[in-house]
Amino acid sequence: MKNLITKTRSSRQLLALLLVATLAMYGCRVTFVPEYDSALAADIEETARQVDRFYLMMLETTSAEDNGRAFEVFAPEYVDIEVMLNSLLNQNKIKPLNQNSTRIAEITLELWQKYKEEHRTDNTLSDGLIKLNRKTFSDLFYAMQVAEKGKELATNPPK
Fold it and tell me: How far apart are CA 111 and CA 82, in angstroms?
């Protein structure tokens, strides 16, 4: 009888230990977040401004009808902005635990290159495409900015 009570007590203790371990696993998770980088946040903001300016200037000062939107007119600005996007990507790549922000930067660069090639191929952009491209990049830069702000909040939570 004493042996049965000891086994029951051991079973209860084991069950309690398993329950506590399970709750600890699911109730408390440690999530590692990359550190906030104010220089990177400033670079994101500056690049976002340059892309927005690029499309707004194209929309306001040129027209597709008179060949004012020929690719070669905008090629230098495409290169300047691509350099900035490459820099954002590289800054994100070197930060540990930064896969999500790196992926956003990769998508942004890939779309920039795709839209640049479409402009080169068609040798013009319509008002509608300019507005659509501008909105797409606005959303991507917003995602970058939110991700960086989240890192700041994670490392310096408001009190």
Answer: 11
